[in-house]
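=== RUN LOG ===
request id: a7f3
mode: sequence -> structure
chains: 1
length: 264
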Amino acid sequence: MMQKNSLSRLLAATLFSFSASSLALTPQEQGLQIAVQAKFQDTGWVDNSADMKMVLRNPQGQTSVRQLKIKTLEQQDDGDKSLTIFNHPKDIKGTAFLSFSHPVASDDQWLYLPSLKRIKRISSHNKSGPFMGSEFAFEDLSSFEVKKYTYKYLNDETVNGQDSFKVEQYPVDSNSGYTRRVSWIDKVEYRIQKIDFYDRKNALLKTLSYTDYQQYLNKFWRANTLNMVNHQSGKSTVLNWSNYAFKSGLKEASFNKNALKRIR
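=== RESULT ===
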């Protein structure tokens, strides 16, 4: 199970250091504690796959639709591996995106373009660029890893009817397209309810909303709808998820850049 041992140690050490102190938690300590708990509660799913419908909408309200298949594999003491395959429309069918997330180091990401019959490595300097014309950046597609950010708890707010922690997250990676993210995480299940993204000028760039959560295996929560709104361009991208499957026996060999060209 990915990072379960290291996360258990981090959670125990974090809670011990806090309980050992007679002082109240600082906002930074509380923000870290919330992030560690959120990550810890979403470990142990081993692998999952799902279908996704991506709906792109321009400022005039015109839409285009893409159909994708997503596969994800947990890693021991590392970030997740994920594979995204485009099945529709015809002009981008067979396009595949492979991402290896890492807790600290820059993520490894590759994009296979069947029209060019070539695999393109995504440079760490280009992680803030848009993914396939959507309002999601390449860096938005990485798994959440605690060490990718530093934290500051702000206050409690109600979002989507959920009493939630409001936490600022500051990217450690200097190549990030964001100065900070503000996340709302509900207090009961530690699910993300909303994220505000601030650009390099510290202006509000995008808001990502998570709705219609469903629980799997009596433990793991996944939002069926993600809505990313770009406040500066007026564009948006909605991701509709369906047909989740967990612990289906996905293999490491499926998450290999050399296999991207063979994907159908």
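=== NOTES ===
The CA atoms of residues 53 and 216 lie 20 Å apart.
DSSP finds two helices and 13 strands in the chain.
=== END ===
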